[in-house]
Amino acid sequence: MRRSALIAILAAYLGLAGAFAVMETVFERLPHLEDEIAFIYQARIFAGGRVYIQSPKPARVFWQPFVIDCTDADDEEFGINCDGKRFGKYPPGWPLLLAIGFLAELEWVLNPLFFSLTIALTYRLGREVFDERVGVVAAILLAASPIALLHSGSWMSHPSALFF
Prior knowledge:
Distance between the termini: 26 Å
Strand content: 5-15%
Number of helices: 8
Number of strands: 3
Largest sheet: 3 strands, antiparallel
Oligomer: single chain
């Protein structure tokens, strides 16, 4: 195995460990943004084998940002009629991945894992397009990026989007 590949693997491992550390110490495995809560809400609905749930009664008591609840007269006024369905407003990609994590009871592993795989892919892309040194430097820079580490320790969709 090439020395550069070993360095890239080490960078990917350190990125994984860093993302786990951020998730445990900074975010305590809890969602902190309304977007994260909506992602988890939608993922749990998907994990239950459904695309939506019926709105609970009274609906205003269970109001949640970024969750669509089509029960208000305001909705009908604007031509929206979902027959009392409640669902997340985001596209289903990340919530579907999270749903798989919830079913395996490893939902907290997904973002650090995507971050680690992205570091490895960054090395490979840099190596193929330029040379081994560029791949190694790119992998190390990504692994050391504070914003990438913070997002990888959260429940946001950024690490999976970066990977894909």
